[in-house]
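To whoever is on call:

I kicked off a structure prediction for a single chain this morning and the downstream step that reads the tokens threw a length-mismatch warning. I double-checked the sequence; it's 283 residues and nothing unusual in it as far as I can see. Pasting both halves so you can look.
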Amino acid sequence: MLLSRIVHLSLSLVLFLSACNSSAQYMYLDTNGDGIHSAADQLLPSATTEVDIYLKTNTNRSSPATCVTEQPFSLNSYSFILRADCDSAQVIFGRFVNDVAHFSTNFGGQVAGNEIWIGRGGGTFQAPGTYKLGTLRVTTMDRCACLHFAPSSVANASAFTGFGSQCEGANQDNTLYLGTDWFDVDGLEPNSKPTADPGGPYSAPLASPITFDGAASFDPNGDALSFEWSFGDGSAANGAMPVHTYAIEGFYSACLTVTDQGCPVMSNTACVPVQIGGCPDIP
């Protein structure tokens, strides 16, 4: 009984160590050339985008990786699957240019519908760190598109997203797999809604002009915004900081709608109370 329990505990420990061999790597896409991922990184609608693929072998967004066998998170090959899988958007995958020195061996290069698999490798281990793996040319056809990393392929059972390393990984084959050894990825998402901020609340004497201020509104994708105001008295205006004068005392609700230039175009609205004349103060 004791021997059986020892064997069970030993197997449990081995499985635990294998499963926890590494869990802090990060692969992401960049389209604006700044080397990081943000909401500003998107595929251009009905155009061609140069997409840079990055890999951090020894950290995720915020935490360093630990290999339980204390081997380095080096790099001697990489493989990734990208899939355009939202809103039925059609894309064309173009040329891929490898940017990792000495990775001259091509072991993956398959396009199947809206999915692409690319793999490169070399005989020399690169030091742990952040690598720009390469640049992929992606053309969207007639609508907005997204691009996501996938751990496995729907068209090729041998394709995967991961990288070769001196750290053994959960499968003990010196390959660290997305979805098994690590989970942190950032692809390219469709447009995000902007945030409307009408400022205020506002108050003024009757017939006195009020300058409304929507300048704190912002778009997470970095798109320019248009501003449309509705002042609650039947009047409207455009621009970030319009001036409006009310002709009748009372309480009003002024609403600001901001619209971005993303794909698809998105809007957001927020309202603010306005007190005109000798009414009690706005609570």
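Update from on-call: the warning came from a stale cache, not from the record. Cleared it. Sanity check on the structure: The chain has two domains: 2-186, 202-276.
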